[in-house]
Write a structure and sequence with these properties.
amino-acid biosynthesis, 12 helices, diaminopimelate decarboxylase activity, EC 4.1.1.20, about 25% strand, eight-stranded parallel β-barrel, about 425 residues, binds pyridoxal-5'-phosphate, globular, Lyase, Ornithine Decarboxylase, Chain A, domain 1, lyase, TIM Barrel, single chain, De-COase2_C
C-alpha cells in the first residue's frame, strides 16, 4: 500500500510508522518533523551483515555511510548492531566519537581532507583512512610521522564504471573529483609510492560507483576491475592488497514503480564474482567492505509537515503549501527527486488528487514534489513524505533563517527525541 514496509494505518485512520501514530507525533513534537524507525534501521543493517556472513563467509564489514544521516543516536544504533561507519568530515567523525562509537571500525573519507581532519582521525584512532589523492598521501605521511603512528590506508580508485544513474551522483567514472584514475596509470603510480611509505600501511583499495543504483551488473563490473588491479599490483610489485571496499550506492524504493534488487541478491552475486575472480587471478580473497548509506537510512524515515495554504489555479495546478521545504528537504531542488506523500490523518482515503507540494522558502523551485497523487488536503492536515531518512536532515540548511526540525526515533510503539528542534536563539547563536 505504501512504499516503505514500516508504514501502516491504525483504527483512527491515521498513518503509523513503526506502530506509532504520526498524527500524534506531529501533535507532541510539532512540525516539520523527521521521524526515524529504529527497528527498520536495525533490520536493514542485519540484512546487509547477515548476507555478508552468508555469502562471503563472514570475511567482511558493513560500514554505514553516515553522510546519509548522522547524529549521535544513529551512531549508537549502528554500533549496537556491531557494524562500522563511513565518515567523510571531522564533523561526522566527532559525532561518532562523542557517541562512543568504536573508532577502529570507522573508515575516514573525503576528497579534500584538511590537516586538522587527518590529525583528528589519527588521534581518535580510525580503522583506516581512504586516501583520495597524492597530496593527501604526502600530508598524511608527514602527520603520521609526527604523531608516531602508522595508520592503515586505502586508496580510492575510479574504476571507470558508468552506473546509469543521475549525473550528479555518478562518481566512478574518470571525470570525477573523487579518487585516483586507473586508465591513466595515476592509481598504479600512487600504489608504487605507497608501498614504500614508512608511515602508512596500504591495506586496501576502495571504489564507489554512484548512488541509487538498481542494477547489480555495474557493481559486479566494478569488483572485477578492482580485482584485476589488485592482481596487477601483486604480479608487478609483489605486494598483496588485503582489503576491498566496494562502496555504497544501493537503490531504494521511493516510488511504487521503483524496483531495486534486494541487498541479499546483490551480496550473493557480488560475493560469487569476487570469489571467482580471486580464483582465476590467483589472489587471496580480500576482506570486503561495503558502505550503504541511503539504503539504511532512507526507507526508515519520514518527514511530517502541517498544511497551510491550499491554492487552486484552475487548469494549471493545485499548490499545497507546507511548513517546511527545501531547507529540510533539499533533494527535489537539487536532483528533482520524487517521493510518495500521504495525508497522515486521512491515510485510508483514496489519493484522488494530483498536487504540487510547495515549501515555505522564498524560491519558486522550493517544492517537495510535483504531480504527486494525494488525498484531498486542507489547511491543518498533516502530510507525511515517505522514505526521506537519507540526505535530507544531513543536507538541511537554515535557508530563510528557518530552524532545523527535530529528529525523533520511534521503536516498538514509543518515540524519543534524538535531535532537538532548533530554537530562534540557535539561529542567532554565532551572530556577533
Ligand atoms: C564513498 C562513498 N561511500 C558510500 C556512499 C553512500 O552511498 P549511498 O548512500 O548511495 O549508499 C557514498 C555516497 O556518496 C560515498 O561517496
Amino acid at each position: 500500500m505504501f512504499v516503505s514496509e514500516n508504514l501502516g494505518v491504525n483504527s483512527a485512520g491515521n498513518l503509523t510508522i513503526g506502530g506509532v501514530d504520526t498524527v500524534e507525533l506531529a501533535k507532541e513534537y510539532g512540525t516539520p518533523l523527521y521521524v526515524m524507525d529504529e527497528q527498520l534501521i536495525r533490520k536493514t543493517l542485519r540484512r546487509f551483515h547477515d548476507s555478508m556472513k552468508k555469502y562471503y563467509d563472514g570475511k567482511g564489514e558493513v560500514h554505514y555511510a553516515s553522510k546519509a544521516f548522522s547524529c549521535m543516536e544513529m551512531c549508537r544504533v549502528v554500533a549496537s548492531e556491531g557494524d562500522g561507519l563511513d565518515a567523510v568530515s571531522i564533523g561526522e567523525l566527532y559525532t561518532a566519537y562523542k557517541a562512543g562509537f568504536p573508532m577502529d571500525k570507522v573508515g575516514f573519507h573525503g576528497n579534500n581532507k584538511t590537516d586538522e581532519e587527518l590529525s583528528f582521525a589519527l588521534k581518535v584512532g580510525v580503522g583506516h583512512i581512504i586516501v583520495d589523492n597524492i597530496s593527501e598521501l604526502h600530508r598524511l605521511e608527514a602527520i603520521a610521522a609526527e604523531m608516531n603512528v602508522k595508520p592503515d590506508i586505502m586508496f580510492r580508485i575510479k574504476p571507470g564504471i558508468d552506473a546509469h544513474t543521475h549525473d550528479f551522483v555518478k562518481t566512478g567514472q574518470i571525470d570525477s573529483k573523487f579518487g585516483f584514475a586507473l586508465e591513466t596509470g595515476e592509481a598504479f603510480e600512487a600504489v608504487k609510492e605507497a608501498v614504500n611509505c614508512k608511515n602508512v600501511n596500504l591495506s586496501g583499495l576502495h571504489c564507489h560507483i554512484g548512488s541509487q543504483i538498481f542494477d547489480i551488473a555495474p557493481f559486479e563490473e566494478a569488483a572485477k576491475v578492482m580485482l584485476g588491479f589488485i592482481a596487477k599490483i601483486k604480479n608487478e610489485l609483489g605486494f598483496e592488497i588485503k582489503g576491498l571496499n566496494l562502496g555504497g550506492g544501493f537503490g531504494i524504493k521511493y516510488l511504487e514503480e521503483h524496483d531495486p534488487a534486494p541487498f541479499e541478491v546483490y551480496l550473493e552475486r557480488v560475493s560469487s564474482v569476487v570469489k571467482a575472480e580471486c580464483a582465476r587471478l590467483n589472489i587471496e580473497l580480500p576482506k570486503m567492505f561495503i558502505e550503504p548509506g541511503r539504503s539504511i537510512a532512507a526507507p526508515a524515515g519520514i518527514t511530517l509537515y502541517t498544511v497551510g495554504a491550499r491554492k487552486e489555479i484552475p487548469n494549471i495546478r493545485t499548490y499545497i503549501s507546507v511548513d517546511g521545504g527545501m531547507a529540510d528537504s533539499p533533494r527535489y531542488i537539487l536532483y528533482g527527486s520524487e517521493y510518495e506523500a500521504i495525508v497522515a490523518n486521512k491515510a485510508n482515503d483514496d489519493r484522488t488528487e494530483k498536487v504540487t507540494i510547495a515549501g515555505k522558502c522564498c524560491e519558486s523551485g522550493d517544492l517537495i514534489g510535483e504531480n504527486m497523487p494525494l488525498q484531498h488536503a486542507e489547511s491543518g492536515d498533516i502530510i507525511a513524505v515517505c522514505a526521506t531518512g537519507a540526505y535530507n536532515y544531513s543536507m538541511s540548511s537554515n535557508y530563510n533563517r528557518l530552524q532545523k526540525p527535530a529528529v525523533v526515533f520511534v521503536n516498538e510503539g514509543k518515540s524519543r527525541i534524538a535531535v532537538k528542534r532548533e530554537t530562534l536563539d540557535d539561529i542567532i547563536r554565532n551572530d556577533i
